[in-house]
C-alpha cells in the first residue's frame, strides 16, 4: 500500500468523530418519538440531513407527511450568491423553499453547523419567495461528536444571536458518552444508566426574561435508548404568553394621535392609540419594550435586497420586532414583512388653496358659459344670413317695389339682427299694405321673439351673479386635482403617492407627477403663501394628523378636499412568521371589539393635538366671505 494513503486513512480514523450506528439509530428513534408526540397535528415535517446517516432506516415509518432534504455541507458552504443586488439567495434554496411553502411547520435538522442552518432559515423565511408565514418548531441533531468546549461556545454564540428572538421553539440534542468523564453534560443533572453507554440530552434557550438570561441554555430532558424521555417534559412549551420581562423593540414615529414619541419636560413620553394597545399587550404577555424612532426616515422603504430605511426597513432588517404608525396593507412591504390583523382605518386627503374670487369684469360674461356665447354669436350670424336671403327671395318672387335699403346687403342685415338682439325693433319703413313688406315683418317678429328669450335668460343670470360672489371651480376630489393640474406635496416621504405612481388610471399618475417632496423650510413657506396643496391624514375618529405647517393661520387660505383620495385599514408590521403575531392579533382584536381605538384616539387628540388647528381644518369648507351679507327682504323690496 502507498504509505501516504495509509497516513491519510489513519488521520481520518483519528479525527473523524463520527457516531457509530447505535448512536445514529438512537438519534433517529428519538426524532421519530418527538415527531409522533409533538408534530403529529402538523401538515408536514421536514427532515434535513448532511450525510446519509440512516434516517430512512430508523426514522420511518411515521404517520406524518415528511419532506426529506439531503443537503451536503459542501453544497451549502461553497455556493455563490446569485444576483448580488437582489435578496440574498443561492441555488440550493429551492430545496428548502419547497417544504417551507408546502406549509411544514416542524424541521428536524441533522447538521454539523447549527448556527449556519439557523441563519439560513431566518433568511429563507424572510425572502419574498417564502409564501408561508408561520412560527416553526425545530429539532437540531448533532452530526458528529464535538468537543465539549467547542460545542458550548458554539451554543453560546448561537443563543446570543438575534435570530433566537424570533425562534422560540428550538430544541438542540447532544449525545453524552458515559465512558468519557469529560463529557458530562454541564447543564443536565447526571443520569447514569447502566444499560447504555450514552444518553441524548435535549435543551433549548430560555427566550423569556431580559437579555443576558434569555440567552441561557435550559435543560429539557434526557433520552435513553430503549427507555425514551426520562422526565416526559414538554419540549415545546409556550414561551410567548408570559415573556417574564423580555424586551421587544418597537419602532414608530412621533405622529399624534396614533403614536406619540416625544420628550415632554425632559422625559420621553410614549402614547397614542397604537402605543396604548402595545401597553395592554405588554401587560398581558408580561414583556417590556424599548421604543425607537427615526423621525427623518418616516415610513421608509424596503429595497429588493431586504434592507431598507424607515419603519418598514428597520422591521425588515430585524432591528425592530414590531413597527407601527398608521401602516397600510401594502403589497410592496408584504413581500418582506408580516402584517397583524387590521384594527382601525385612516384616510389620505389633501388640503388645497381656497378657490380664488373671479375678477369683477367677468360678471358681464358670467351669465352664459363658453358654449352658450358661441351659440348666441353663431345664431346672430346665421339669422343675418337668413334675413338677407329671405329678402332676396321675396324680392324675386313677389317682385314688389320694396327695395328697402336696410336689407339691401348682408352688412345691413347683420346690423338689424344686432338691434334685435338688444331688444330694439328695426326702424325700417315696413308698409303693411305691400306684400313683400308684410312677409319681412312676419320674419322679423319671430326673430324678436327668439332673442327676447335669450335676453331674458341673460338678465336672469346676471341678477343671480350680482347677488353671490363668484369663485374658481373648487377641487373636491382627486380627478379634479388632475384636471386642474394642481401641485401638491409634503415634507415627509413618498408613501403618500407611491401607489398612485403605478396606477392604471392616467389621471392618478398625473396627480402623482404633480407631487413635490420638499424640505421643511420650502413646504412651510409654500403653506404660508398657500401656493400648493398638502397631503394630510385623517383618522377614523375624525381627527387629523397635521404636519407642522398646517395650523390655524395657514388654514385661513387653505381648504380641505371633500373626498379622500384613499382610505385604508391599518396594521402593525412584524417579521415574516413572527412568533409574536398571534398574541398581538388577539390583543388587537380585543381592543377593536371593545371600541377602544376610538376612545384612545380621542384621548390622544385631547392630550397632544391643538384643537383650534383641528377645527380650522374641519371647518375650512364652510367659511363665510368677509364682504358678503345674507340676503334679506329689504334687499329686494322697493322703498
Ligand atoms: C409535546 O409532547 C409532550 C409529551 O407528549 C406533551 O406533553 C406536550 O404537550 C407536547 N407539546 C406540544 C406543543 O404539542
Ligand atoms: C457500548 O457498550 C456496548 C456493550 O454494552 C459495547 O459493545 C460498545 O462497544 C460500547 N460503545 C462505546 C462507544 O463505548
Ligand atoms: C412578569 O415578569 C416579571 C419579570 O419581569 C416577573 O417578576 C413576574 O413574576 C411576571 N409576572 C407573572 C404574572 O408571571
Ligand atoms: C411640564 O412642566 C410644567 C412646568 O413645570 C408643568 O406646568 C406641566 O404640567 C408639565 N407638563 C407635563 C406634561 O407634565
Ligand atoms: C441594498 O440595496 C440598496 C439599494 O439598492 C443599497 O444601497 C444597499 O447598500 C444594499 N444593501 C446591501 C447590504 O447590499
TrEMBL record:
Keywords: Cell membrane, Glycoprotein, Membrane, Receptor, Signal, Transmembrane, Transmembrane helix
Cleaved signal peptide residues: 1-18
Subcellular location: Cell membrane
Membrane topology: Multi-pass membrane protein
Annotated transmembrane regions: 372-391, 442-468
Keyword Lipoprotein: no
GO CC term (a single one): plasma membrane
Stated name of the protein: Uncharacterized protein
Organism: Diploptera punctata
